[in-house]
Amino acid sequence: MKIGITTTVPIEVLYAAGYQVVDLNNIFISSKDYLRYIEIAERDGFPKSLCAWIKGIYGACIENNIKEVVGVIEGDCSNTKALVEVLKSKGIKIYPFSYPTKHTLDEVKKSIDDFINQFNVSKQEVERVRNKLNIGRKLAKEIDRLTVEFKATGFENHLYQISLSDFNGDVDGFINILKQKVEEIKNRKPKVKKLKLAYIGVPPMTGDLYDFVEGFDAQIIYNEVQREFAFPRFDMVKDIYEQYYYYTYPYSLQYRLEEIKKQLKERDIDGVIHYTQAFCYRAIDDIIIKSQLEVPVLNIEGDKLNCLDARTKIRIEAFLDMLKDLKGD
User: Fold this and answer.
1) Fewest CB atoms less than 10 Å from the CB: which of 162, 199, 213, 305?
2) How far apart are the first and last CA of the chain?
3) Is the distance from CB of 12 to CB of 130 less than 8 angstroms?
4) Is the domain 2-118 a CATH 3.40.50.11890 member?
5) Which residue spans adopt a coiled-coil conformation according to this UniProt entry (predicted)?
6) E-assigned strands of the chain?
7) Which residue has the higher pLDDT, 261 or 35?
């Protein structure tokens, strides 16, 4: 049985219930014909002045005949509430999940317990699955470490961490892929770059960003949200409740910034690329981000294209030139 998700949710519950989990975001953005998913949504009445991700998720769901979906109605995109209503009208069964507005362990526990009850599984089954998934999370954490050593590329860091949102729908198969990839990366010689960059914000539509910056003696060695999808603190928590309590993405910007600042310092980051999606409320976060981070921040915006446009390339190149001047060595 397949079940779609609109963003990272407690997939431990879904796998314990016997589902094959499919992140609709990943189906959308990895498709060679990704624009068709947007066109499906617009044909069905979604406005052009709406985030491409929401339209892509809708199109991916309809086109791939996904009959059940977990929709995150609190703690992610504010448009998801409307999206799930449209999906319901198409006969798709919706399971709502909310990251609590009040960020306390008790509130997180209530939300996850409600999710567990929706799927009629036990806490023991969920923890058993969590322990298995942690094998993959440990491997992703190693890829993250190897990125800091300039052995893994920024794109590999992005790809293998973001894929843990659903384990590519095949837990055992994806864990094997990760094992092979870690061994391959370990045997490489480091390709050290002058500039160490951080990427923060929602995962990009423009996957060519990573290769582009590497052409200017720079590399992204920290992907904020992708790293959170991989639950890097999996080995410091005692259960699923703590795991999702310490997950930063769905909670306040200030909570996210605590972890971002920590990673910027630990990784000795020279500059930050903050990606936002057109028509998304999160673009307003850039005001606070730039005022609180102690390193230069460049905000870039994506819309429908899955590659960087000429204007954005020029802005990134100018930003990297400025960082090299500031570094001065």
Assistant:
1) 305
2) 56
3) yes
4) yes
5) none
6) 2-5, 20-23, 68-74, 93-98, 195-201, 218-223, 271-277, 297-302
7) 261
